[in-house]
TrEMBL record:
InterPro entries: Rossmann-like_a/b/a_fold (IPR014729), Universal_stress_UspA (IPR006015), UspA (IPR006016). Residues 35-135, 153-278 form the UspA domain. It holds the Pfam family Usp. The lineage of its organism: Archaea, Methanobacteriati, Methanobacteriota, Stenosarchaea group, Halobacteria. This is Nucleotide-binding universal stress protein, UspA family. Gene3D superfamilies: 3.40.50.12370, HUPs. PANTHER family: STRESS RESPONSE PROTEIN NHAX, UNIVERSAL STRESS PROTEIN UP12. Belongs to the universal stress protein A family.
């Protein structure tokens, strides 16, 4: 595998610390070919260094130094970036500038506030990222949180509507397979489904199974009926994968919020990790 680079975004919170100090998580990144990590923290534009008793930039630089030692000890080359501005915009900007292959961000999962289910930065990144985005779910409501799923990609649930971008997401198994053991292929037949009859669907899923088998991955299929987002989330609850993989824009031609409505609902409501693969930048 050629070396890959990842932007690991942190706000120095407990959730970020848990994500960075997860030895298993760092090992998963290494196994999929990541050898360089860019640690990024963003000082919000409305925070000023002259505010009484507060020096956010110095505090964040100290925090990044500690994180850098942890990540370097795990065998990665590390660069740190302390920048100012709107978090998701600066994180996307750095990912583009350094040619990152993916962005990793921690999330404390479902919030008691219904309309703020994941952190605003993670949600905004999900809507706007131009490189694959991994939302690493962290326990909430405890003083010493752990990652919700210990392994990032060991058991992957891949949701497909057979669209071009779903195929693009599937192609990530070319490198995810080095950290994956089993895959559940999920397709949801909705009332407006135009992907063919059941025989066609089974045949197309069978082709994906064969490709996974050629990579040495155990695969199974799950064909469901109903609302796509609701059924994908139901499949996650049933199969309990390490990570749910899907394209960030599917068959819908409506570009609501720059993210397919199904993908957004899955990111917001999934229990475990979500790996979103966006269309090419030119799209």
């Amino acid at each position: 595998m050629t070396g890959k680079s990842a932007v690991l975004a942190t706000d120095l919170s407990t959730a970020s610390e848990t994500m960075i100090e997860s030895e298993t998580g760092l090992n998963c990144l290494s196994r999929i070919g990541v050898d360089r990590i860019h640690l990024v923290t963003v000082v919000p534009a409305n925070v000023h260094s002259g505010m009484p008793g507060i020096d956010f930039e110095k505090r964040r630089k100290r925090g990044l130094r500690r994180y850098r030692e942890t990540v370097e000890a795990a065998g990665f080359d590390v660069e740190t970036h302390v920048v100012r501005g709107t978090p998701h915009r600066r994180i996307n900007g750095i990912a583009g500038a350094v040619g990152a292959d993916l962005i990793l961000v921690g999330s404390r999962g479902k919030s008691p506030l219904e309309n703020r289910v994941i952190g605003s930065t993670a949600r905004n990144l999900a809507r706007t990222t131009v490189v694959p985005l991994l939302v690493d779910r962290i326990e909430r409501g405890v003083d010493d949180p752990e990652t919700v799923r210990r392994h990032l990609f060991k058991r992957t649930l891949f949701a497909t509507d057979f669209s071009e971008n779903a195929e693009r997401a599937f192609e990530t198994f070319e490198y995810l397979r080095h950290a994956t053991e089993e895959v559940t292929l999920v397709h949801v037949r909705s009332p407006k489904d135009d992907t063919g009859d059941e025989g066609d669907v089974e045949a197309r899923l069978g082709e994906l199974e064969d490709r996974l088998d050629s990579w040495g991955l155990e695969a199974r299929t799950d064909v469901r009926r109903g609302d796509p987002a609701a059924e994908i989330l139901a499949a996650e609850r049933e199969h309990e994968p390490s990570t749910l993989l899907l394209g960030s824009r599917g068959r819908s031609r409506l570009r609501r919020l720059l993210l397919g409505s199904v993908s957004e609902e899955v990111v917001v409501n999934a229990t475990g990790n979500v790996f979103l693969v966006p269309p090419p930048r030119s799209a």
